[in-house]
């Protein structure tokens, strides 16, 4: 199943701690009634994000009970459109390393790949693509920089 119901207990979703970006707050959602959907890593894949939001709608999971766990931008082709959709969807979103890096205009994604690795080579390419795509869309960078690093909630 796409959603698994668990007994009521305090839950916590966290992004990795970074080096002091401006969004180091905690978002407390309180008690969420009904099913909760956690997903992440949209990675600039607009069609995948559209599909996930469609599944949430089909399952009648409201946006207030939906959490994207970070990395809205990365390897795929449509970072601006994907970010716009996530931002306007009403879904709660954590700051991942990608949002942190873009939000504070770092020179790389902060993935920490070894310099001589293929992963680093790919990350340099996608990061360059994302930064070019977001030129003139500072509101998206500011949104990323202001995302919380932790979201707390209870179910039941």
Outline the structure in words.
With 156 residues, the chain is of the alpha/beta class. The chain is built from 5 helices and 6 strands. It has helices at residues 46-58, 79-88, 97-103, 118-133, 138-145; strands at residues 10-14, 26-32, 37-39, 66-68, 92-93, 150-155. Strands 1-6-2 form a 3-stranded mixed sheet, with no helix packed on it. A 3-stranded parallel sheet has the order 3-4-5, with no helix packed on it. Strand 3, helix 1 (46-58) and strand 4 (66-68) form a beta-alpha-beta unit. Helix 1 (46-58) runs parallel beside helix 2 and helix 3 (97-103) packs across helix 5.
Summarize the structure.
The protein has 156 residues and is an alpha/beta fold. The protein has helices spanning 46-58, 79-88, 97-103, 118-133, 138-145, and strands at residues 10-14, 26-32, 37-39, 66-68, 92-93, 150-155. The protein is 35% helix and 17% strand.
Distance between the termini: 19 Å
Shape: globular
Fraction in beta strands: 15-25%
Q: Helical region count?
A: 5
Give the fraction of residues assigned to helices: 25-40%
Q: How would you classify the helix and strand content by structural class?
A: alpha/beta
Radius of gyration: 16 Å
Mean pLDDT across residues: 86
How is the biggest beta sheet arranged?
3 strands, mixed
- The tally of strands reads 6
Q: Spans of 5+ residues with little confidence (pLDDT < 50)?
A: 1-12, 14-24
């Amino acid at each position: 199943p796409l959603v698994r119901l668990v007994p009521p207990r305090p839950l916590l979703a966290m992004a990795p701690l970074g080096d002091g970006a401006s969004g180091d707050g905690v978002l407390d959602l309180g008690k969420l009634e009904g099913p909760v959907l956690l997903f992440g890593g949209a990675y600039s894949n607009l069609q995948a994000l559209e599909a996930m939001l469609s599944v949430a709608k089909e399952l009648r999971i409201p946006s207030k009970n939906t959490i994207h766990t970070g990395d809205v931008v990365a390897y795929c082709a449509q970072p601006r459109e994907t970010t716009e959709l996530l931002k306007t969807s009403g879904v709660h979103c954590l700051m991942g390393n990608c949002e942190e890096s873009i939000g504070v205009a770092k020179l790389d994604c902060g993935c920490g790949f070894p310099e001589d690795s293929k992963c680093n080579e790919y990350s340099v390419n996608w990061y360059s693509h994302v930064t070019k795509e977001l030129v003139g869309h500072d509101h998206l960078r500011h949104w990323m920089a202001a995302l919380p690093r932790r979201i707390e909630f209870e179910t039941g």
